[in-house]
Amino acid sequence: MSNQWCPRFRRVLVAGAAIVGLAGLPAKAQQVTNPSPAQAATDVEPTSPISASFRSQNGVSVRPETVRVFLNGREVTSEAVITRDFFTYRPPQPLPSGRHEVLLEFTNTQGVTRRVTWSFTVGSPVRASIDLVDHNAGHRPLSAGEILLVTVKGTPSSRVTVYLIQDGRQVQTLQAREVSSGTYVVNVLVEPKDATREGIVIARLENNGQVRFMTAEQPARLIEGAGGGIQRLAAQEVSATTTVPSLVPQITNLRDGDRVAGPSFTLQGTTAPNASVRVTVTASTSVGGILSAQQTVMNQTVQADGQGRFTITVRPPIPAAGTVYQVNLTATSGSQTSPTVTLRLTQQ
Questions:
Q1: Residues 250 and 341 sit within 8 Å (Cβ to Cβ)
Q2: What is the pTM of this model?
């Protein structure tokens, strides 16, 4: 099959142009819009799903039971989800680097068979790495009531965990937050029970199934030897150390680039306890494959609870497949305001 259609249908266009029919005559037809990855897209993630929307024109629409999906000449129809409005297919394994071609074959409600093709290029996969693990308990022991601050630098948009091994007798597992691209922070209050003569700080970073570990060069000392001569952080220094990183809002149930389904979606996140989080959501729809002007679908403030957790539901007025939502979050607590955190979601 793949050796037959490729040369013959190079004239078929995607997203908004008239499709050339089998007899070589221009014909208005059901359009395939919002291809994802986009036509000629580069540096596509190896695990990206493949999808497109169907749009009726002049009363003509796709018969979903006739849709066939091909990737690089191999039919994957049985592995795809196909509806009257869209199709989506997620390759079972990450796609290799290089060019990939998608072909859709379908029959419309007038009984005419059409074919549409587009291509994209998968970039080299992200190689997970940790560049730095540092903490503030190496030069002197921290006292009870001070803040242990651990900083990890590595591959952005990763999941980072810090393990504190205390004198070989117990392990604390601490979740890190990404406070800026590739910079992760853990801050915890030191308590009397945390007395540690030699603590080993180990960072674990996970990205796209790749896992990396790195150990801090200096051991961490907590409380051991701390007395009247130990310098304690001033109250405002403690506030600056702990509040600013924890104030940065983080969405915990979705990640940048995820797809959402249905007439609404929920954002769950964390910030500083009792902070106010301004949530702004704009939607960009596609007409004929071209993104339209942005429309604001939410501009609302939500209050975090005593543990810093917040939840808000977004209900777009027209949740059309392929719509791209840009979510901006900014948290405020007292006189402090966090940097703006942004993630993009796509309507399935």
A1: yes
A2: 0.37
